[in-house]
Amino acid sequence: MTVNIDASWKQALSDEFVQPYFQNLVSFVKSEYSDHTCYPPGKQIFSAFDHSPFERTKVVVIGQDPYHGPRQANGLCFSVQDGIPHPPSLINIFKEIETDLGKPYPQSGNLEPWANQGVLLLNATLTVRSHMAGSHQGKGWEAFTDRVIKTISDEKEGVVFLLWGGFAKKKASLIDKNKHYILTSGHPSPLSANRGYWFGNKHFSKTNEILRKLGKAPIDW
């Protein structure tokens, strides 16, 4: 069974692709995509990995589920295709960058430029059925993406993990805190942000500060 994913990740995760749960997951996803409209487009399911190869990944952002509306999801958490209106969480992410870094609010919500700099924008579940949030949860994606996080933790050093909201914070148990940096805050969704749990976290400047200390290039957010 061939998985169309960047070669560096294929090597790092080779043991996972032969696991029975993963083969069952592939069968499920193929069936869903053949019988229903699903997102992201098939070629973009592993986009997060293709844009941020294993050896270049230095920041990890953890999301939960892809957007389930037409033409939104592009395989990167919180990101939308060019020309698509920005969802509420993404708007709040960009607002925080405005105040944290003094950068103008961007036109495009496509976060590929972040990914190309080594920011792994990882959803816990990589696919979803159209207009059915959470429809592909509990099918095996979470086991796979937990293994991704654990592999990064075990095999790399000095990675900055951004854990936004309760769901993402639970992933801290997979990360070696002695080797890596974990920044946590509320989720950028309006429900959390408007209650004071998101704005002012300065995660973008803090991440760059850490990267500079490690002698790595900062992210152009």
From TrEMBL:
Key words, A-Z: Cytoplasm, DNA damage, DNA repair, Glycosidase, Hydrolase
Major localization listed first in the record, in broad terms: cytoplasm
Tagged with keyword DNA repair: yes
Catalytic activity: Hydrolyzes single-stranded DNA or mismatched double-stranded DNA and polynucleotides, releasing free uracil
HAMAP family according to UniProt: UDG
Alphabetized SMART domains for the sequence: UDG, UreE_C
Gene designation: ung
Location of the active site: D65
Listed PANTHER family: URACIL-DNA GLYCOSYLASE
SUPFAM superfamilies, per the entry: Uracil-DNA glycosylase-like (SSF52141)
Name of the protein in question: Uracil-DNA glycosylase
Subcellular location: Cytoplasm
